[in-house]
Every structure is written in structure tokens, then in C-alpha cells.
């Protein structure tokens, strides 16, 4: 039975070109990264920093670790930070900002990731009030996972940055899928990253590396971040053996390959909108979209039937999320359109 895994772009596996680089590795390309002596990690960090327009970058184990290291490096315990209410930092990083960083985390409402700045101002602590702690960091997620891969446009990021500067806050961009945003908008990624004092992006999602993420910012930021990475157990030694995948992934042709995922998401949604069933299929901006089901829909049974027919997805309440990625081709998309239709027709 054919299996098509739409659960996440985290299920991706390396490209043949990546494996060729791994095969070429030897001891001369490895060193102790805690001592900043691994030439492959150093190459990756320099390449990443240049790509996103920052002074320096740091290789971390995951997006979650990258976000936490970024938060710790720009705040102190007791500070307030502002995060979007459906953001990954707020809901899916195990409360690390509060537990480890000692931060007071306030969640702001938004229009698909973009806050109303007037409302946001009301959430900021008064630095002159002896009773209140300082609000020192504003966070944005781009693309935004739980709004279906929605892009926060450069103009909106600029407004957030101007607002943050006026309020003496830093702006952190959780850019796990920032390259999806840049490719979809057909702009250099720096048009998005320029507004972040810090930026995190994942190598292990659409870029298909087996492990790792990057954080980038000023040299001083990365100097602090390196110490916090060590504190969190992320000081890897001969890490070049995994960092080499990232060196390959940051080539322009591999980044531009993300267009294929966006096209496949569009084809899949167009097919699903022909079903004439009581579902609402989101129009994708990138490689993620949600399908809304009626409240009376038997979601557990639908999910079980999809799995039995080789369609792997995640559900959230009465929504199912689809994520297209490397490893899913056009034949898989056509197969999925027909298979999903047959499954759903059993329930409606």
C-alpha cells in the first residue's frame, strides 16, 4: 500500500546530494565545536549568517532549543515577553520560557499572526511602575504554523520592529519556515529577516536535514547565545558530521526547491475542493493548509480510515492539517486526492 505522510515536513529525509557530502567527510572536516574548532560547523554558521543578513549565527539542536536560547539571550528572569497566542513558543515548547527562563509570558491575539499594535501597547509593562516588570521582547512566527503556513509580510514585520524599538523591546522571529515565506513571496529572505534582532530557522523541516536549526543575530547576541546553548546541553563536539547536511541545504537551488512543495499543496487543495462535501479547504500560501470539518464529523473514525488507506495526517479538534514536503511528488498528490475522496465519502 502506498503511504503519503502529510503529518509534517519534519518527516523529511536527506537528498542524494546531502548524502554525497556525508560520504566525502573525513577527520579533517571535524573538530570540537564547543571550542569553535569544527570547520564544517563554522562553515555552516558563516553561510547561514550571510544568507539571512546577520553578523553571526549559531548551530543548535532544534527549533525549540533555538527559540529558547534566543529568548534567554535577550531577556533576564522576571521580564515580560509577548508571544502570539497560537505560536509554537507559547503552546508547543513545554513552557520553557517560564520554567527555564523565569519569564512572564503574555499571549497576544492577532490577525493570522499580525498583532493590533494598539492592543499590544496595552499589554506592555510600565517601566516606571515599581510594581511591574519590564517588557523586553516581542516574538513573531513566520510562516505561522497554526494559521496554515500563513506569511507575515515584510511591511507587517517592519511595523512590529518599529513598535518594538519605540518600546525598548527586541524582536525575535521564529522563522522555522522562513524560507517557505521568502520563496512564496519571491523575495530574498533578508527582506524578512532584516527586522528581527534575532532569527531562528529550521534545517530539519522543508530543507530536509536530519537534525538542527540555526539562530542568527548580532555578534554580541551570538556570544551570549553560545553560553546559553551550553547551559541547555546543546554544546556538541564533532558536530560537523550532522552540520554538513545544513551546508548542502543552504544552497540556493535547494531552497528554491520549496516551490515544489507549495505547488503540490495548491494542487492538493484544488482537488479537495471538487469533492462537493461539507468541508472547508484552506487556500495555501505555502506548504501547509487546514481542512475544517463539521462539528458532528466523527474525526477519530475519519483519521483511522485515512491511516488505513495510507494517508498520514494530524488532526486538531475538527481540523486536519496537511503539510507538503520533500519526498511527496505529484503522483503522490494525485493518489491522495482520489484516496481522501473515497474515505470522506464514507462519512458524508
Structure description:
The chain is of the alpha/beta class. It folds into 2 domains: 16-252, Type I PLP-dependent aspartate aminotransferase-like (Major domain) (Aspartate Aminotransferase, domain 2); 257-344, Aspartate Aminotransferase, domain 1 (Alpha-Beta Complex). 40% of the residues lie in helices and 16% in strands. The chain is built from 15 helices and 13 strands. The protein has helices spanning 16-23, 39-52, 63-72, 88-91, 96-99, 117-121, 154-166, 178-185, 190-193, 219-231, 240-249, 252-256, 258-272, 299-308, 330-344; strands spanning 4-5, 56-60, 80-84, 104-108, 135-141, 170-174, 198-202, 213-217, 280-281, 288-292, 311-312, 314-316, 319-323. It has a 7-stranded mixed sheet, sandwiched between helices. A hairpin with a 6-residue loop joins β9 (280-281) and β10 (288-292). α1 runs antiparallel to α11 (240-249) and α3 (63-72) packs across α10 (219-231).
